[in-house]
Hints:
By secondary structure, this protein is α/β, with parallel strands linked by helices. The chain folds into five domains: about 5-290, Aldolase class I (TIM Barrel), CATH 3.20.20; about 295-320, no CATH class; about 325-385; about 390-500, Alpha-isopropylmalate synthase LeuA, regulatory domain (Double Stranded RNA Binding Domain, 2-Layer Sandwich), CATH 3.30.160.270; about 505-535. Helix content is about 45%, strand content about 20%. It is built from 18 helices and 18 strands. It has helices spanning about 25-40, 50-65, 80-90, 105-110, 115-130, 150-160, 175-190, 210-220, 240-250, 265-275, 300-305, 335-345, 350-365, 370-385, 425-440, 485-500, 505-525, 525-550, and strands spanning about 5, 5-10, 40-45, 70-75, 95-100, 135-140, 165-170, 200-205, 225, 255-260, 325-330, 370, 390-400, 405-415, 415-425, 445-450, 460-470, 470-480. It has an eight-stranded parallel β-barrel, surrounded by nine helices. A three-stranded antiparallel sheet has the order 13-14-15. A hairpin with a 2-residue loop joins strand 14 (about 405-415) and strand 15 (about 415-425). Helix 1 packs antiparallel against helix 10. The longest helix is centred in the last third of the chain and has 23 residues, at about 525-550. It is globular and about 75 Å long. The protein starts with a strand and ends in a 13-residue tail after the last helix. The structure holds 3-methyl-2-oxobutanoic acid and zinc ion (ZN). Zinc ion binds next to loops.
Amino acid sequence: MTQRIYIFDTTLRDGEQAPGISLNQREKVEIAEQLARLEVDIIEAGFPVSSPSEFEAVKAIAKNVKGPVICALARTERNDIDWAWEAIMFAERPLIHTFVSTSESHMKHQLKKTPKQVLEMARDAVAYSRKYVENVEFSAMDATRSDAKFLYQVYTEAIKAGATIINVPDTVGYAVPDEFAALVKGIIDNVPGVEDVVVSVHCHNDLGLAVANSLAAINVGASQIECAINGLGERAGNCSLEEVVMVINTRKDAMDMTTGVNTREIYQASRLVSMLTGYSVQPNKAVVGDNAFAHESGIHQDGVLKQRQTYEIMSPEDVGLVESEIYLGKHSGRHALKTKLEEMGFYLDDKGLERAFIRFKELAGKKKEISVKDIEAIALDEIRTLEELFLLDYMQSSSGSGAIPIAAVKLSREGKSYEATSTGDGQVDAVCKAILKATKVKAKLKAYQVQAITRGLDAMGDVTIKLDIEGHEVVGRGVSPDIIEASARAYVNAINRAVQKGLLEKKKLARKAKKTASRGKSKAKKKTASKTTTKAKKTASKTATKAKKPSKGGSKARKKP
Ligand code: KIV
Ligand code: ZN
């Protein structure tokens, strides 16, 4: 009988842990809605205890996204589990995913716990989670570097305590397929009760083997794969959803398996995640890369023209890659734009729609043909716009041979205006410096990339910028037919991500504490001054703690993350 493989998507949790990615609530819900259209079985929406914004985002997904199981991650601490439950309690089908490390190195150096203690932590976490939900997943972190016999024991206890899914993570992407398959088979053969639970695998891609390892595991009896769109995740990422699903789909002759994924939504999911995370997809990426269905050599083109299957093992339509038709022009009104956006799955609020309409009109004035990709780029840029943060209201720049490049910008935030001008080594440099001056942010440019959204010289520019702000990497993205404006938008977007992550707030608090302390010192005697310092430090840390606490976390008082 054809075996059903469950697809557990972790784009919004493990995927979001990739350096520089920081999605806001709106973006996370948007991605979760696309994952629901993709018909994944489980959406791991996040790690609620990690921050108030993460908590709110998971809660919003649980409340609004229908179809898949909604999962929240929690360490084995009861406080984590409480927060996870508070976040997903409104989901149609909630799932708590709890984990603890089981390898000697992790237990000894990171957790500083004995195997016996770890066993108890696993047991307690699963049993405690089961008080809230019927479905609990337990992961033995770093399973592939753990002692197999100890793993059997941990999974046995987890199942006894009520786990309904046991997950085998290759946390550091160290395993090779045969070895990983043997580990999973060993678990299936040696853990009592395993026949009543789902065996899941979670493979990282450090050696480029995440998909191969996941497939090896389902061949020996695992029935759930944890994966992420575009293979996003810690370090080299996770098993790529589109690849593993398309292998199962395309090679039915080699493996009698199936997933519930609607593959025609794959391409849209990939683009959405790429545009919102700022992580571009490499052109030669399997399934979703720009060249995945492009045939360059004459022999290949000839073959495909005569009979598609000569060089194509799957069709672009199967993954939702359809030629974008042109449907809107400069005479189209607001209503037409709104209708088309909604057809594409984008629901903008009134302000967002108004801004999108203005940009659409500007584009229509410059470009004869407006494609689906153009409209999508404008919509995504609006979704990326963080309303409560800095908005780019105006920018102007000029340069020329022999002239010094100069730029002026005007931004607004919560009704206040921020203006500045600056010169630079080029127009992009000048506009970015002007933004820094206006916002008073200190940032170092780490990477800059520009791509064309469509073909042709009038194509919109899609700029991705990576900044180092206060020692943290943040990625911003912006689109516009004018590359300087796209750069300015990307730069403001990256700054907004830093604001959203609280990076600038932390710095402000530290500065305030330092100032208060030194003022106290100069005014009073040594003894009094030291008292003031402590007080200032306390005030700063109190405020910081307050900022960290999830704000609307339900009625029960919870420990801070
Ligand atoms: O890689 C890992 O081990 C994880 C666990 C939380 C499952 O992401
Ligand atoms: Zn992981």
